[in-house]
Amino acid sequence: MITKVKHIVEKQAYGVCSWWGAKLGIKSSTIRIWFIYASCLTLGSPVIIYLIMAFVLEHKNYFKLGYKKPSVWDID
C-alpha cells in the first residue's frame, strides 16, 4: 500500500526533477536533494520555481513556436 502511494506521488510530484535529470544526464534523486537544500536555505523560493516549471512542462505543447490550436473540423 505504501509502495503504491510512494510510486504515485513520485510520478506526479517529481516529474520536473526526472525530466531535468533525463535532459542533463543526472539522477533525479540528486536534483530532488538540491531542491530540498535550496528550499531550506532560501526559505522556499525554489518551490515557486518548481511549480512554474511543472506548469510549463505540463503545457509545453502550447509554448512551442508555430503551434496551431486544432480546429473542431480537423480530422486526424
Describe this structure in words.
With 76 residues, the protein is an all-alpha fold. Helix content is 66%, strand content 0%. Helix 2 (15-24) packs across helix 3. The radius of gyration is 16 Å and the shape is extended. The N and C termini lie far apart (40 Å).
Share of helical residues: 55-70%
- The poorly predicted ranges are none
Q: What does the main sheet amount to?
A: none
User: Could you state the order of secondary-structure elements as H and E?
Assistant: HHHH
Question: Would you tell me the overall average pLDDT?
Answer: 78
Query: What is the overall shape?
Result: extended
Strand fraction: under 5%
Please work out how many helical segments DSSP would assign.
4
- How many beta-strand runs? 0
Terminal CA distance reads 40 Å
Radius of gyration: 16 Å
Class derived from helix and strand content:
mainly alpha
Task: Provide a short characterization of the protein structure.
With 76 residues, the chain is an all-alpha fold. The protein has 4 helices and no strands.
Structural topology:
Blueprint: H1 2-13, H2 15-24, H3 28-41, H4 45-58
Keywords for this entry:
76 residues; mainly alpha; 4 helices
